[in-house]
Amino acid sequence: MTEPEWWWEPLPLNEAAALMSGFPGPWWVVAGWAIELHVARTLREHSDVDILVLRDDQAAIRSQLHGWDVQVAHGGRLEPWPEGLHLELPRSGLWARSDLAGPWQLQFLLAERDGDTWWFRRDPRIRLPIAEIGLHSPSGIPYLRPELTLLFKSKDPRERDEVDFDAVLPLLDDRACTRLAAWLPVDHPWRTRIVGRSVYEL
Fold it and tell me: pLDDT tens digit string along 122-148?
């Protein structure tokens, strides 16, 4: 999209992580950047920086990004986010920029929880303890586990998702392979490749 309202100049990852310093709840870098943090090398260019926070912690985004323009991204449109409005499903995305007339710089995704358990909004049967859904890079940046990142990417994978899958598959341990294969549809092409490299019966 070329309209000014869709103009993106994402923050460098280190700046995005620094901006989240002191955030009162857990947060994780997700999507393509999470894969690069796991493989510890550059794979491709990124059009944005995505950060996952718990839906219950959404109000803290306003305090963390005081003075920023933050809007709801839903259904291919941007919507105002009135002060005090608690976003519920299906709305799960926020775009943020430091300048009202400038480009968008950061995207937030809202994660679902049931007590201390995270659940996947496209399939509530998929659940993990919140304490287990993330890892940390050597520099301390929290990021979503690769098998969860691939789960999010598995619906209608694009070329960049295939690049990410190819890069991280050799680094998945057997537990991650077992999880992801169980989560994916039986006929998903990624599942066939995962089963082929895992030592476990899936």
Answer: 999 999 999 999 999 999 999 999 999
User: Are the CB atoms for 184 and 191 separated by under 8 Å?
Assistant: yes
How many beta carbons lie within 10 A of that of residue 166, not counting itself?
11
Predicted model pTM: 0.88
* Chain mean position to CA 117: 17
Domain 4-152 has CATH 3.30.460.40: yes
